[in-house]
Design brief:
Ferric Hydroxamate Uptake Protein, Chain A, domain 1; CarboxyPept-like_regulatory; Plug_dom; five-stranded mixed beta sheet; 55% strand; 22-stranded antiparallel beta barrel; Immunoglobulin-like; mainly beta
């Protein structure tokens, strides 16, 4: 009887317990990536668990009612969260935690082509994550970069919205854009291709200012932007992001990952549609280019023995773009009655990296091939162009000695270009596509001299099939007297082989003709960069401050001269020299109260000096640019606010005085400012909305002689800010891990 009684009590107790206990499920993430093996504890109990490799966890017997759980992980701030536990339903929470010092622990590859943390990198690198760009949602990479200090997206045409990216004041052709370390976006594709990179495919962006030709070759003269695509293994299972504005700009992003055998695949897509003709200034021209764009991205990560790397990715972009007179219709394309600039772009890319199966050696083969097909009309001028670029690179990462970490590389690049202009024709008018072979070899050695000094020595040799051999050396020195102070000195030599004039908007849009005065020689640049960064913490938060001084000297600088003749854009090597110099600062503060602030500014001077010692400021280059992002989060309410903006000093603009152009030669001081509110929910859903350009700044005089678009006086290049007034936006995003 006693045993029976004990058994009944045992069954009763354990039968009742589930009624007083519930289940908590969740995922621990940081910057949209799972945090592996984080510890989760129900406060004031012995109940807890550990997340798995994907950041997922289950607490099976949590007490009912409001419970506080605490999340801890090495390198991350401890976070507490209140959840309502119920026996009737299971909680499923998404928990975002912050790194102790995000800047110090960030992984970078751009400066050395090897994975290292940002505080160990001999070269100064700036890291940008999607969470930073979400403070001011934009549909593509080109617009997102306006938030980066010293980096300025520049629209070059008020009709078709061609654009390029300026780093430290140097124009677009000096900026190299990489995808996963490979030269995917270059030459012809820089004109419209930058707007075809959606944020949905981006894991992070690494920005390096100053020449990087020793590692990356031609075009990396002013700096480079390396777009690191999402890793299928670390990406959310499902991601969706949609937003629209009061201008009716609609942007859709979605991605999904799947396990296929031993591989993990990520599929993502972006659709952007703006089809609303707006003419605020009543000049009968669209203020903003109409765009209908589709971008598809697919990346595979294959499991291989000994965790060797094998990734393969493909991307396709289609865009239909139009700007011109308000009454233009598709039937007017290429005609002389109604002016319009209509551009159809089809582009595909294939890229991958494969670690070769060498015993005890890390040898990786990187490869890419892309094709850019452009069918466009600018008024009555037709421009049909096709470009193919194939690239291969072999890297051998070799530890030579205890203090010597070397990298050996061999590359080959083939560029094919054809269009319907005279530049790809023989004197007897036969088609002659342009073909360039560019093989190269490089070596770098990273030398550790004690715990405080690190040196990076590098040299590269390329052979251009048109211009012959080109030699570029490099030197970097990092000095860290302690973990909170870092000094970096960079010295480098860069080069740029001439890009075809068709890459420049002024060659086709407007009425100016192009004149190439002589056979253009490669540009050379000589750069010095001094950088100081200090990390610090205080009772209520942490932060860092960075100062940077840069100086670049150009010889054989290739210039597009708008001043010689109002009807011409004259290309020639400068009979003199060019200078880009300045100082920059960045600050970041994060407080336990939930307040965060990023503030930066760049003061610079960019000019050329011709043979007669005449100093000429570069057009569309302000002497000062500033940017900021100030955020405040209410953790309990899961609500955050973001205030972002840019400030620009006056910049010199192209004018045509010979035709009676009375517009000011310099733009005014101006700023673009935005505000956003975001509400986060425990299931991973976020709702956001706000105002862009809430001070309602609009540039004046965007098009000269808009009333005579087919005349020689027509000029749409007077551009310094987008023609978009204040506008509201709203959106929703969802991440499921």
């Amino acid at each position: 009887m006693r045993k029976l009684f004990i058994t009944i009590i045992y069954i009763a107790i354990y039968g009742i317990l589930p009624a007083f206990a519930g289940e908590i499920r969740g995922t621990v993430v940081s910057k949209d990536k799972p945090v592996s093996f984080a510890s989760i504890q129900v406060v004031n109990t012995t109940i807890g668990t550990q997340a798995n490799e994907e950041g997922k966890f289950i607490i099976a017997n949590a007490p009912n009612g409001l419970q506080t759980i605490q999340i801890t992980s090495v390198g991350y701030k401890t976070k507490s969260l209140t959840v309502n536990v119920s026996a009737e339903k299971s909680n499923n929470v998404l928990i975002e935690i912050e790194e102790e010092n995000a800047q110090l622990n960030e992984v970078v590859v751009t400066g050395t082509m090897k994975e290292t943390t940002i505080n160990e990198s001999p070269a100064p690198i700036q890291i940008l994550n999607p969470t930073f760009f979400r403070k001011n949602p934009t549909p593509n990479l080109f617009e997102s970069l306006s938030m980066v200090n010293g980096v300025r997206p520049q629209l070059n045409c008020n009709v078709c919205s061609t654009g390029d990216i300026h780093i430290n004041g140097m124009e677009g052709p000096y900026t190299m854009v990489l995808i996963d370390g490979m030269p995917i976006v270059s030459a012809l594709s820089t004109v419209y291709g930058l707007s075809g990179i959606p944020n949905s495919m981006v894991e992070r962006i690494e920005v390096m200012k100053g020449p990087a030709s020793t590692l990356y070759g031609s075009e990396a003269v002013g700096g480079l932007i390396n777009v690191i695509t999402k890793s299928p293994g670390k990406a959310p299972k499902f991601n969706f992001d949609w937003n629209t504005t009061s201008y009716l700009e609609n942007n859709f992003d979605a991605s999904i990952k799947a396990k296929v055998g031993k591989a993990t695949a990520l599929f993502s897509g972006n659709y952007f549609l703006f089809n609303n003709r707006v003419d605020i200034n009543n000049d009968n021209f669209t203020d903003i280019t109409l765009q209908n764009r589709v971008s598809l991205f697919n990346k595979w990560s294959f499991q291989r023995p000994q965790n060797r790397i094998f990734n393969l990715a493909a991307r396709y972009v289609y865009e239909d773009r139009f700007g011109g007179q308000m009454q233009w219709q598709r039937s007017d394309r290429g005609g002389d009655k109604v002016y319009g600039e209509s551009i159809f772009t089809k582009r595909w890319e294939l890229l991958g990296n494969y670690q070769l199966p060498f015993e005890n050696e890390k040898v990786t083969f990187n490869f890419s091939i892309n094709q850019h097909d452009q069918n466009s009309v600018y008024g009555v001028t037709r421009y049909l162009a096709l470009q193919r670029i194939a690239f291969g690179q072999l890297l051998w990462d070799k530890k030579l000695a205890k203090n010597h970490d070397a990298l050996f590389g061999a590359t080959i690049r083939n560029t094919y270009y054809d269009d319907n202009t005279l530049i790809t024709q023989t004197p007897d008018y036969k088609n002659a596509p342009d073909r360039i072979w560019l093989p190269g070899v490089f070596i770098q050695d990273e030398i550790s001299a004690g715990s405080k000094n690190k040196f990076l020595l590098g040299v590269r040799y390329d052979y251009n099939s048109k211009h012959g051999g080109i030699f570029t050396p490099r030197f970097n020195w990092k000095f860290s007297p302690d973990k909170d102070n870092i000094f970096r000195l960079s010295l480098g030599n860069g080069y740029r082989v001439v890009n075809l004039f068709s890459e420049d908007h002024a060659a086709l849009t407007g009425s100016r003709k192009v004149l190439i005065k002589s056979e253009l020689k490669p540009e050379r640049s000589y750069n010095a960069n001094l950088d100081y960064q200090k990390f610090f913490s205080f009772a209520k938060g942490y932060g860092n401050i960075q100062f940077n001084a840069f100086y670049t000297y150009f010889s054989n600088k290739i210039i597009a001269d708008y001043d010689q003749d109002p009807e011409l854009v004259v290309y020639d090597n400068l009979n003199g020299y060019g200078i880009s110099k300045g100082v920059a600062f960045n600050t970041e503060f994060a407080f336990t109260s939930g307040l965060k602030a990023f503030i930066g500014g760049t003061l610079m001077e960019v000019y050329r000096v011709e043979s007669r010692e005449l100093k000429i400021n570069q057009i569309q280059t302000p002497n000062f640019t500033g940017n900021y992002a100030i955020s405040y989060s209410f953790e309990k309410a899961q609500l955050s606010f973001d205030l972002t903006g840019n400030l620009y000093s006056p910049m010199r603009l192209p004018i045509v005085r010979e035709y009676g152009d009375t517009r000011p030669e310099y733009s005014p001081w101006f700023g673009i400012h935005n505000i956003q509110a975001t509400k986060r929910f425990k299931n991973g859903l976020q709702i956001y909305g706000g105002l862009k350009n809430f001070t309602n700044f609009l540039p004046k005089y965007p098009i000269f002689r808009a009333d005579a678009p087919f005349s020689e006086e027509f000029d749409p290049s007077y551009n310094y800010a987008p023609m978009q007034r204040i506008r509201g936006f709203v959106g929703a995003r969802l991440n499921i891990f």
